[in-house]
Recover the amino acids of this structure.
């Protein structure tokens, strides 16, 4: 997660409150999605960005997880994400993000 996005997440969390923020990721690899999930929950693990050492504990999901897919209009989801389900390792991505969410999220749905 680049530094600009980290700052935007931090600013939105300060503005709306962490309990009102949900981060939806779209990374194409499990490891990258996991790092982004960790950044918005436990803090930037690289200690390079605005979220270094800041544990926001935000709820975080990947776009391909069932919880998010079920909230979308099926036609829109198929058009925008259907192809990605066919080419990405959805299980690995979902497992990685879920693992981080279960460890560090402070706000439950």
């Amino acid at each position: 997660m680049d530094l600009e996005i980290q700052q935007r997440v931090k600013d939105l969390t300060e503005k709306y409150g962490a309990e009102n923020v949900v981060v939806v990721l779209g990374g194409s690899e499990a490891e990258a999605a996991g790092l982004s999930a960790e950044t918005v929950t436990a803090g930037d693990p690289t200690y390079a960005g605005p979220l270094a050492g800041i544990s926001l504990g935000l709820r975080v999901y990947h776009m391909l997880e069932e919880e998010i897919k079920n909230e979308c209009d099926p036609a829109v989801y198929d058009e925008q994400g259907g192809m990605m389900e066919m080419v990405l390792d959805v299980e690995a991505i979902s497992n990685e993000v879920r693992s981080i969410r279960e460890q560090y999220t402070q706000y439950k749905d």
